[in-house]
Specification:
5-stranded mixed beta sheet; alpha/beta; Maf protein; 6 helices; 169 residues
Length: 169
């Protein structure tokens, strides 16, 4: 029996399915770099039958070294701006887009809570999401409310909405 603090995937995820259809129509592929959402964005996309046609890879890069070594983010960007910044998350998305050889890449980093970060004055629920596409990179800052799992779900939802917006523009 699921507990009150669980995340479940929609049986028919219309947002994720629509993204898949748009990617197929554009002959595009997507890669995802997650921190706070912990794989939830990728899981939603992979719940769509036929995702192998348009989903390249998903990476959970939780630590600073994972962002540097695994995604190629410049250490100085993280040091100067912090991991939960438009600069760092845009760099994650842009680097992943290049590394994976895809048209679209999504990245996110945040503070899910319940405790805040020792190194950042940003509140629990803070998140930055970026989408890198052929048209450029768009980053948004958010503060989501709720439990850790609820924040994760909200990050995944907004990240997918941003990806859909990039595909439709």
């Amino acid at each position: 029996m699921p507990g009150k603090n669980t995340v479940s995937l929609p049986e028919d995820d219309e947002l994720a399915a629509g993204i898949g259809e748009a990617l197929v129509g554009r002959e595009g592929r997507v890669a995802i770099a997650e921190t706070t959402a912990g794989g939830l964005i990728s899981a939603r996309l992979l719940s769509v039958p036929g995702a192998s046609r348009w989903f390249e890879r998903g990476v959970v890069a939780y630590s600073g070294p994972a962002k540097i070594d695994g995604l190629g983010v410049d250490r100085e960007v993280l040091r100067e701006h912090g991991a939960v910044s438009p600069q760092a998350v845009s760099a994650m998305a842009e680097s992943l887009r290049e590394l994976a050889g895809v048209a679209y890449a999504v990245a996110e980093s945040g503070i899910a809570g319940p405790q805040g970060s020792r190194r950042s004055p940003k509140p629990v629920g803070s998140c930055v999401i970026a989408v890198a596409s052929p048209g450029g990179t768009v980053a948004e800052e958010h503060v989501f409310e709720g439990t850790r799992v609820q924040v994760m779900g909200q990050i995944a939802e907004r990240a997918l909405e941003m990806l859909r917006e990039a595909l439709l523009s």
